[in-house]
Amino acid sequence: xxxxxxxxxxxxxxxxxxxxxxxxxxxxxxxxxxxxxxxxxxxxxxxxxxxxxxxxxxxxxxxxxxxxxxxxxxxxxxxxxxxxxxxxxxxxxxxxxxxxxxxxxxxxxxxxxxxxxxxxxxxxxxxxxxxxxxxxxxxxxxxxxx
Length: 146
Description:
Order of helices and strands: HHHHHEE
Number of domains: 1
Number of helices: 5
Radius of gyration: 20 Å
Structural class: mainly alpha
Strand order of the largest sheet: 1-2
Largest sheet: 2 strands, antiparallel
Helix content: 55-70%
Low-confidence stretches: 140-144
Shape: globular
């Protein structure tokens, strides 16, 4: 989560002028909060879908518990993508003087776009075991197909 906060902070700071000022520090803080919460919520959702607790997944303390598959990958990616973009999309506009409604709308809009993208890119297609019979040798070989 710390890595997510640092990367989120640097990226948001750089995307908003990379100024060494109080405003630049505020942009860094917005990005850091978005990165930290995205990592935590993504992990929490993933562990909760596997039967663990959201809190343990959020904190990164769930040992050996993770969900996999198409649905779990999409939901986890959507939750993480939505969280980060909702925070940066709304808070950055508020920093620039927009009213509450504009910031909220922008946060929801960018959150849903990033959530869909995060969900699609996080889909895990399970590996299937396929048994192939060679006609001449009649022996079974296991081949993993993705």
